[in-house]
């Protein structure tokens, strides 16, 4: 390591560091795609539906956000095979993408993930939205896994009064609601990486 790199100054020939830029608004070309919210087809017997809204600090919908989900399959296996965009009705990539509608709404059809290690089953959620310098990360946990929540390492670090912002609400058989509040009194817990 050189003295220049230790002090944080750029050495000869080094590219300068540029600041982050606000993400969005998003163009409707290439980022959202027709089957993006369908991680699995809805006809699968183990398919679940997750829906929700992205809301700003005033509780107003964010109509131009983009969400990605990343998850394990129903056995807790993290997919490592090709087929993310062309699922051909049977493949499971563990990835989905959905833009929000004018009411800030989003939806995904997927499977409930199995646990990975000591973690309770969860879906990783990334939110890209106007006003954010970088996308934010959160997790969606399932309400029926309360016993596993107690042993989950990440949930164990979240204060009790904020933990509910990470747990979806059951809306019916295999249906969940997960609203994401970017700021404000009901702000969703976001993770730093």
UniProtKB/TrEMBL annotation:
Gene3D superfamilies per record: Aromatic compound dioxygenase
Record InterPro entries: Intradiol_dOase_C, Intradiol_dOase_core, Intradiol_RC_Dioxygenase, Protocat_dOase_a
EC number, UniProt record: 1.13.11.3
Lineage top rank: taxon: Bacteria
UniProt KW Magnesium keyword: no
Keywords carried by this UniProt record: Dioxygenase, Oxidoreductase
Oxidoreductase among keywords: yes
TM stretches of this protein: none
Intradiol ring-cleavage dioxygenases domain: residues covered: 48-184
Family, per entry: Belongs to the intradiol ring-cleavage dioxygenase family.
Protein name: Protocatechuate 3,4-dioxygenase subunit alpha
Organism annotation: Actinomadura soli
């Amino acid at each position: 390591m050189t003295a220049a790199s230790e002090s944080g100054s750029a050495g000869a020939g080094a590219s300068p560091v540029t600041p982050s830029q606000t993400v969005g608004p998003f163009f409707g070309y290439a980022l959202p795609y027709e089957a993006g919210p369908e991680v699995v087809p809805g006809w699968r017997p183990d398919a679940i539906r997750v829906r929700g809204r992205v809301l700003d600090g005033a509780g107003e919908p964010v109509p131009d956000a983009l969400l990605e989900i990343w998850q394990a399959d129903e056995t807790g296996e993290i997919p490592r095979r090709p087929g993310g965009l062309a699922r051909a009705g049977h493949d499971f990539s563990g990835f989905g993408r959905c833009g929000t509608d004018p009411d800030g709404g989003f939806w995904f059809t997927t499977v409930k993930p199995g646990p990975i290690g000591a973690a309770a089953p969860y879906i990783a959620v990334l939110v890209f939205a106007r006003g954010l310098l970088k996308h934010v990360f959160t997790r969606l946990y399932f309400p029926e896994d309360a016993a596993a929540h107690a042993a989950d390492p990440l949930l164990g670090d979240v204060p009790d009064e904020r933990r509910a912002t990470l747990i979806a609400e059951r809306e019916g058989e295999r249906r969940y609601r997960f609203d994401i509040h970017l700021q404000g009194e009901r702000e969703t817990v976001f993770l730093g990486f």
